[in-house]
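Morning!

This is the sequence you dropped in the shared folder:
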Amino acid sequence: MEIPLTGSIKDVSLVKLLVFLNRNRKTGTLSLRTPLFTKKIYIHEGDAIFASSTYEDDRLGEMLLKANKITVEQYDKSVEILKSSKKRQGAILVELGYLTPKDLFWGVKYQVKEIIYSIFLIEEAEYEFVEGEIPNQEVITLKMSMGNLIYDGVRKIENWTRIRNEMPDTDSVLRLSTDPLTLFQGIELSSQDKKILSLINGKKTIKDVIEQSWMGSFEALRILYVLWSTGIIEQATAIREEEAAAPPAQEEETMSLEEILSPHSEEEEALLSKVDAIYTKLGSLSMYELLDLPGEADGETIKRHYYRLAKEFHPDRYFAVTDESVKTKLTGIFDAITKAYNVLKDEKTRQEYMQSLAAGTKKQAEPAEDLKAEDQFKRGVEEFKKGNFWGAVEHFKWATKLTPKSAQYWSYLSLAFSKMSGKLKDAEEALLMAIKLEPFNADHYANLGLIYTKAGIKKRAHSNFEKALKIDPSNEKAKKGFDQTKE
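The structure's back. Tokens below.
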């Protein structure tokens, strides 16, 4: 998913922006500017480590005063010295004996978090991310997962209208995320969050969850908004299974909610030892060895092992570890097991890999020349032009398997499905993947509107045509669909 590095947070939410920078492990400075102030978040390899602000109330002294760490008299004295010296206010407060070094350490981290949290409350600002080295003069940096930062920041949002506008429609169905990187991120959920999460089963609508939540509607929706924003839950397809002529079988849960939410109990020393042992052997381990699999493992076993390892070696585990190189190692292991899973989960590529192992090559299951993604895509287009939609679907499926981050391949797969009887649900799923990868492509939303129109979901169709027009007011397909689906 590509997100522009400059723009307005009215068009791109801060959450999506931070998730994008985190997932792509960017290093640089994110600035948000309003007519009154500028606030900056300094990001290193996807993690927020510091923040600054030109807003007077965000200064360290003001923060410490509001947190009852210093008195007004102590604050005024430090400001008096600050004006006649080049020292920082924190250092002055320590020298005067008003703060201990430990208090200062707490104060700076508190200041950084509060600045970042305050940014979530801004509804209109221009943002810019400048990639590159960041100032390194700060010795006190934030050590907190991006997931937890987003979680705490979004929880402070009290604007009902904003929450409703950013959430899917209340008749939408939600499910647990299918992405282990998102599902297992380091977020400390409250007991109320867990109660709401226990209601998410891929069948209940947002409205159903709110009604069964044992709490007020606003509080329940706000918790759903927090879980939605952090990516722990995602939107399930809107077209029901029974509307498809040949619906796919319901997947079994890979892990229970209790397993997903249970904290790691492993000690730091044991974690470091295990990470080092695997990281040093990454280049020599087979994919089966990497996923700790028996030779004849079936698809469900492969999936179960992958989820367990994805949780164990999630990059968020490094925040409590003193050795900062652990993040690099965990990231390398996580990427390797994900790559292994993507090869082994599909029976055909799994067999190819098994053959490569038998030949003693232990290669990373490079597809044969005739299975290259672009070649499969071109064959799909040819079959589509002939009216052979079944054949087109098979080729487009292969293209998406080989290059899953191509929005174009997912879009064409959706188009082919939409031409087949009883495959609107599959068409919807493929197009939602394209939208996830290219959230600012108006054609994707317009095409999704056409699918919902065909399925008889008029309200959802109208909503997607409207989204397309917000991105591209000149989109003819969206304009026509918008007019046709008006109440």
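Headline: The longest helix spans residues 101-120.

More detail when I'm at my desk.
O.
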